[in-house]
Design a protein that fits this description.
- The structure is a single chain.
- By secondary structure, the chain is α/β, with parallel strands linked by helices.
- Helices cover 40% and strands 16% of the residues.
- It has helices spanning 16-30, 53-57, 66-75, 92-109, 130-143, 172-183, and strands spanning 3-8, 34-39, 78-84, 118-125, 156-158.
- Strands 2-1-3-4-5 form a five-stranded parallel β-sheet, sandwiched between helices.
- Helix 1 links the parallel strand 1 (3-8) and strand 2.
- It is globular and about 45 Å long.
Amino acid sequence: MVLVLGIVGSPRKGGNTELIVENALKSAREAGAETDLILLSENKVKPCRACDACSKTGECVIKDDFMHVFNRMAKADGIIMASPSYFESMTPQMKALIDRTGYYNSVARGRTTFDGKVAGAISIARRTGLANVWTQQLLFILSQKMIVPGITSYANAVGSAPGDVHYQQRWSNWVSLVQSSSGSR
């Protein structure tokens, strides 16, 4: 059975970003996948210092939840990253995770941890910033050598108050790609 991990980059627990990721994970479960959820609101990931210590020790010297989150990402066959737009950009929580993950994976792991994993991005906004947030997350996904499945539309949603979004994107084709690619690794 494949494992699909959803990462919610919102600092707001129970908000629209979490609702959308839960919906995507529900579709993954319906397609036969095991799922896991990381709320960055409950996991402290500080910004990267670029101190390069991880290249020598294989461990990040910053004491927070990063290694726990990274190891869960490494275990997953598929990853869904979602962030709301905060002033036309992803949240500081998601940015810190992306920076730390990218640096650590490149310097301490030879940029091989995520090779061939399937990943997708979702952006949420009250008004603007959807394309910026979606693209920022996709650039990270591609830089880490993950596979992005074909899409029929951007995975974006608009909403302000929690529950405003009603996102019905079906993820079953995406899960099929995760299942087929995980068998080839």
